[in-house]
Design a protein that fits this description.
four-stranded mixed sheet, Immunoglobulin-like, 2 domains, 16 strands, 213 residues, four-stranded antiparallel sheet, binds copper (II) ion, mainly beta
């Protein structure tokens, strides 16, 4: 009997260990539905003349019940040669954007959209920041150079992409499910911006759609 006891204890210990491994919650920071191979992708083409003229954004409207953390590193919108760069900056709601100035003269940034803001005037090497709390498109304007126009488009999910000049786009690592894709281009009309395109995404697979606004 003396020899049997340690064997029984050993077997029980192993059983306990394997059950515990299954019951343990995922490691902090590892979202089970976003692990590699557990997500889907979406690729496709936007077919509209405005695609050739201005940047086109494609995005998943929302994943109900799921909230996303804004990136730790702030995206940047630059002002260079009197142009907002990039012209369209898509960001997740809650994101803080750093506005910088790469020109040797002052610029201003203001927006009449959303809660409206005016970040003032500043020169090269300085930056001003703004946190976007509500989804929507915010036109970026400069009071010193009326020809300057840019857009920050604030979205409810981090699943977005800017299409190439031919309208081709690809969005990776989207949770599986049936979601609504939308398109944004400054030349499209409100009705075209409101239109939704249903997409079904499966684990480890890439779905394809054609968007004709
Ligand atoms: Cu300016």
């Amino acid at each position: 009997m003396r020899y049997a006891i340690p064997l029984i204890l050993g077997a029980a210990g192993m059983l306990a260990a394997s059950v515990a491994a299954q019951d343990k919650p995922p490691c902090p920071g590892a979202d089970p539905i976003l692990q590699e191979g557990a997500t889907g992708g979406l690729k496709g083409t936007v077919k509209h003349p405005s695609v050739k003229k201005c940047p086109t954004l494609v995005y998943i409207e929302e994943i109900p019940g799921k909230e996303f953390k804004p990136p730790e590193k702030n995206p940047v919108m630059d002002q260079k040669d009197k142009v907002f760069v990039p012209r369209i900056l898509p960001v997740l709601v809650g994101t803080t954007v750093d506005f910088v100035n790469s020109d040797d003269f002052e610029h201003n940034v203001f927006s009449p959209d959303g809660e409206t803001y005016n970040l003032g005037n500043w020169g090269k090497g300085e930056k001003r920041s703004y946190t976007f709390k509500r989804p929507g498109a915010y036109v970026q304007l400069c009071k010193l150079h009326p020809e300057m126009v840019g857009y920050v488009v604030v979205l409810k999910t981090p699943y977005f992409a800017i299409a190439d000049d031919n309208g081709n786009f690809r969005i990776s690592d989207i949770p599986p499910g049936t979601w609504k894709a939308k398109v944004w281009n400054e030349r499209l009309k409100p009705k075209q911006l409101d239109a939704t395109y249903e997409v079904t995404l499966q684990k480890g697979a890439e779905s394809e759609i054609e968007i004709k606004p």
